[in-house]
Amino acid sequence: MKSLPKDISDDALIKLIDEWAGLMEAEDYEAAFQFTEQVPEMEWTPELYKKVIKSYGDCLSTQKLTVQGKPTDITQRKEVDRWEPNTLSEVGEIWYDLNIDGPVKDFV
Q: Which residues contact 36 (CB under 8 A, 6 or more apart)?
């Protein structure tokens, strides 16, 4: 897992997620899993990453996440929202639509 500076820019955050998505595109689910901090209660695993990608939409065993999306009627969202710390010490959220086999999807 990468530690991030408190003053990281929105662009740097998006580039970081692009890097994670690149691991997913390479189907290196273990590295993608290790790239982020996990909340144990969510029960994510590298195997679950793969299962979610392979069972999305057309449910093809060959489909994979792709970093660059081909425009469709859906515009790929990559945006950062920030706010003052709340009661959970959260300071924002990132909206990043993932692409499956190229076309932009509303898969977040």
A: 1, 20
